[in-house]
Design a protein that fits this description.
Blueprint (H helix, E strand, L loop, with lengths): L2 E8 L2 H14 L4 E5 L2 H13 L8 E2 L11 E4 L10 E5 L12 E7 L2 H16 L4 E5 L3
Parallel strand pairs: 1-6, 1-7, 2-4, 2-5, 3-4, 5-6
């Protein structure tokens, strides 16, 4: 069954995303970052080129010819599904494909509207019996 992790009280979603992507890469895990739209995909793409400052996080879009051998996929389109190990959901709703992954990561910022959407996703997962871990980054 898919493991769900919520990272809450996050000051910067994109910086936290880069940190988690670097950790996944160090553990040789494959990650799909699903964004809400093309504009967010572009922002994440640019961020992964510059964070961390002394590293490189190899990534591409799902339809790119090198996607099958690239450890991090960034896209707002869930198909084609290239990796099924870790999904980082940056969408306001639960993606229909979430259960295909071993692990789903939800990053929740400080904005009240964002927290409300995250609570709805939390209830969605919980009501379906998924094991949910919460990581409070405020402490």
């Amino acid at each position: 069954m898919t493991q769900i992790d919520f990272y809450i009280h996050v000051e910067s979603t994109l910086h936290t995303l880069c940190t988690l992507a670097a950790k996944a890469l160090a553990k040789e895990m494959r990650m799909m970052i699903l964004t809400a739209d093309a504009q967010t995909t572009e922002r994440v793409d640019r961020m992964l080129w510059s964070q961390p400052a002394i590293g490189f996080l190899p990534h591409c879009r799902a339809a790119h010819r090198l996607a099958p051998v690239t450890p991090i996929i960034v896209d707002h389109l869930p198909d084609p599904m290239v990796h099924e190990q870790v999904l980082v959901n940056l969408c306001p709703e639960c993606p229909a494909v979430f259960s295909r992954f071993e692990r789903v990561i939800e990053i929740v910022g400080l904005d009240a509207a964002e927290r409300d959407l995250a609570r709805a996703r939390f209830r969605f997962y919980r009501d379906r019996g998924y094991d949910i871990r919460t990581h409070d980054l405020a402490s």
